[in-house]
Design goal:
There is one protein chain. By secondary structure, the chain is mostly helical. The chain has a domain of about 90 residues. About 75% of the residues lie in helices and about 0% in strands. It is built from 20 helices and no strands. Helix 7 packs antiparallel against helix 8 and helix 17 runs antiparallel to helix 18. It is flat and about 125 Å long.
Length: about 625
Amino acid sequence: MADPRNLEREVEELRQLAHELSARIDRVEQTLRSQSSSVQQESAAWASITPAPPPAPPKSGPKPLPYIPPRPLAPATIPEADLESRIGSHWLNRIGIAAVLVGVSYFLKYAFENNWIGPRGRVLIGLAAGLALIIWSERFRHGGYRVFSYSLKALGIGILYLSLWAAFQVYSLIPGAAALVAMLVVTSGAAALALRQDTQILALFALLGGFATPLLLSTGRDRELELFLYLALLDLATLVLVTVKPWRRLLVLAFLGTLFEYIEWYETFYDRGHFPLTLGFATLFFAIFAVAPLIAGLPAEPEAKPFWAIPHVLAFLNAAVYFIQASVMIEDLLDKGSAWMAVGLAGVYAFLSRQIRPAHRETRAGESLRLLHVAIAVGFITIAIPIRLESHWIAVGWLAESAALLWLANRINSDFLSVFALGALSLGVARLLFIDNFYSARLLLNARMAVHALAIAVLALVAWQGYYRDDDDAGKVASACVIALNLLAVIALSREVSDYYRHAIAALQPVPGHGIPGESSHVRNLEIGRDFTYSALWMGYGALLMFAGFWKRSALVRWQALVLIAITIFKVFLYDVWQLDRGYRIVSFVILGILLLIISFAYQRDWLELSQP
């Protein structure tokens, strides 16, 4: 029979061991918890973590180990390529293609010079190598190396074009028609591969090959009809392709390719005899690329955002290029015909601005494209005015345009058109101030004063509309227009004073060989009268402005009056006191003093309650 004391001692040892084991388990549990939290943080970006089960209720015995979920494996995704990887995987690849083409060309040249291979063998080797590269590239595409596969296809397509070019141009093995058909087959095959494999880069290579075909098959003869028909069909095919796939960069390439080949032909072959056909094809190209931004639509997917402006750039460049092309041809036959061309294009773009797809009209890109077409229309009208009109009629045209745009902007509530109205108004006023300062012998009732009056009326209209809008920017524009119209009025009246006295002085000039007694004193008196009239005019206009400022309670108008009166004060004290005769001098000072006293009295009476807080 066991000793009870030994049993008690063994039980006590077991309890102590259990206590130590429980403490160790607690430490292990804490360590596992910390590791579990770090694992959860690292794996949260890749997959959701199965929540840990709720902790078991506390027991007197050792705590069980917590549930530790397995760490999920990160998905095998390729991170976004940085600059280094893009250079390594894309640019070095393309440079490699060019290097291989150059190396093969040198090898073939060496082989040809040593007559290792005959002409037919050379062409057949090139065709076989091109087809083999295209077929071989599929193995890499299925293996996941898509970029390398497309590069091999591009290399193969390039070798096919070069082989066909050599067969026609170098060795004369095939006629031009056969070479054209063969190149069209290569282009069509490349386009079909692009559609089947849904890759834009192959479509770009196909389009490049299509535009290279006329250059490769050129014989130096004038084949305008065939060339431009081919380019038109190629552009239409590109337009159809872009309506199926969102590959809008193809439109830019097609536009630039067409423009390059048009200019190349024009510089070499164009003369007046080509005018009808050339203008017709230029118009056809313009029509294709004018509707392209509307038919192709606007990108909405995020990956297309860097290229969302392609329709906008294409619309602007197409309008500018066609206007230059047509104007150069038309001006050679019809004087100022480009003005009517500009007016016609303004109508075309006004019509196109209303043809934006309904699905795109509410988007930011769609609205910006619509406004761009409106801007192009307005721009052509603005260009037509100085081409068609002359002298002061140019300013009249711009001012009338600004008034019409302002009316339309107010009618449809368009701030965009208001900006163009202000632009046309600025052009008209600038020309009026700096260019159209022509001499007029008739006082007030003359063409120059009429143009000034028109400009003042348009400025007043802008100011009137701005003051009745709850918009800070509109208020600032209105204030600027008020300042401008008053400045323009003072300048216009001062010019009338100048012309009046110039005419009077010119009438006193002596006839050669005959003197006029007292002529010098008469001229001096007229010059003094002119200087006094300037002072009187400015003081009178300043007084009217001050009266209007008090009447309309407008600080802006009153400040303009104060500035004009200050300028008059400086003129009287610094110029008139030394230049005018005693009588004019007395009158100038008296009138100025009376005016200043009246204005001072008005401010002291505080009619506007300016001193009130």
